[in-house]
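Replying to the earlier thread about multi-chain prediction with a worked example.

Input:
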Amino acid sequence: MSDRKVVKFRGAGFAPISKRGVGPLVFILLIGFLEFGTRVGFISNLTMPRPSDVFWTFVNLWSSGLLWQHLIPSLTRLLVGSSLGISAGIGVGVLVGLFSFIRAGLVPLVSALFPIPKIALLPLFVIWFGIDETSKYALIAFGTFTPTVVATYGAVDNVDRSLIRMGQSFNLSWLSIVTKIVLPGAMPGILSGLRISLAIGIILLVAAEMLGAQYGIGAYILEAGSLYDLERLFTGVAILSVMGVTISALIGRVERRLLKWRV
Amino acid sequence: MDLLLENVCHSYGETEVLRDISLSIPSGKIMCIVGPSGCGKSTLLRLLGGLERPSSGQVVQLGTPPENCINPLTYVFQDFALLPWRTVEKNIGLVLEDHQIAKARRAEIIADVLARTKLTDFAGALPRQLSGGMKQRVALARALAVNPAVMLMDEPLSALDSQTRELLMGDLVNLWTRQPFTAVYVTHNLNEAVRLGHSIVVLSRRPGCIREVVTIEKPLSERQIRDSELDAKQEYLWNLMREEAAAADQELLNV
Ligand SMILES: Nc1ncnc2c1ncn2[C@@H]1O[C@H](COP(=O)(O)OP(=O)(O)O)[C@@H](O)[C@H]1O
Ligand SMILES: [Mg+2]
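Result:
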């Protein structure tokens, strides 16, 4: 055969591996571009604040001590609200996953609640729980509850049935099967659901704070927005983004710890 | 303790899977069950261990299991069914945790079964680090840990390559020779059946009923890979099954 050809490689792609530094690079390029644009002038200061100005606003916020005054109430609300919502969500999700009766009763209800923009219900929560912290906790809890339920029962459905059957065949108690087989088996799905739930939690946090809070990142953003103070507005938004990235990184760490067993 | 199947029939909806099976499981022996695929072997095993209720007839347990028996009817599954998030040791520990067994005694049992299955060095490994043969040895160790009165094995070696299967068959024979156990061993591999079975039950195609029970007197430890007596038995079994298997194959096509 004279017609010699190397067999073409066509197995590339579809196998994401972690590339260090690419994520930060995207941020640096984007911020560098904005900085450059606003300095040179092809981006007007009226449409976009200069990143370095935003940075100095942040430094001021920090040194004046106001940062913590806003951040601590916000983090508390997020923590309390989302832990309530997520723990209730995992509990209900597991029950829905395990019991046909509960599933038949609750799945339609959850589907009905899921698409409601929870922000629209804030006035209701204010009437029920008062204007103070409780209504904010309730809003965040409610908002994180539904996606957690859906993720959890999906994850429970996906637990390998043959493992459960194995547990039964060794006469493990019902509780053992749930805690030692179902829950660990559902953990990957539950954790990826948490990413979504917590992002929704941050969104609702800001919404709740915009509607009645003296301190909090949402209140800070609202105040800056009403004054058209773009530097402060962007400072607030950047803080939210950092919160999002931090939470996502934390979940990533938890995943690496808890899901070491995965291939 | 003996197990007895009395006129057991089973159907899934319209599909009749097993018809009038009566069988006594001799204790201290390995009974193999062979039959064409889809004839209800796995179903029969599930009925034996109480994972499924027969449509009619009954599965009877004669006598009480021995004192030290933690889980009288214990399965070994084809797909191993190991918890991927637990190490070898903890996978075995799992089946001891729900019983009031002192921690020290538990560790003792685990060490013993690990030694018997030659897994001591792998106590801390996760299932994903093990080959198929190793995983099945872990599953076997787990089954031995509860000291079963009857082991119910559903094609335990079918997911393994032929070399590993040969090795594990040797291990099973050694385990049995050192300490005889009762087992019902389902397989579609006639070679496994003649190497491991004291008796071999041949099922017909669906609805499965017993065509014949073949016994092999030769002690397990004396059965070799090339053995004219076993080869003759295997050929005999194959002749019994050939038509059934062909017909079962056709049926699957016609569905
Ligand atoms: N849970 C079930 N529901 C309905 N049909 C089943 C179920 N399990 C098995 N069957 C049917 O019963 C027949 C026997 O299955 P099985 O016992 O697994 O056969 P084998 O193990 O001998 O290959 C097959 O036709 C299969 O489709
Ligand atoms: Mg089968």
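DSSP finds ten helices and no strands in chain A.

Feel free to reuse this layout for your own posts.
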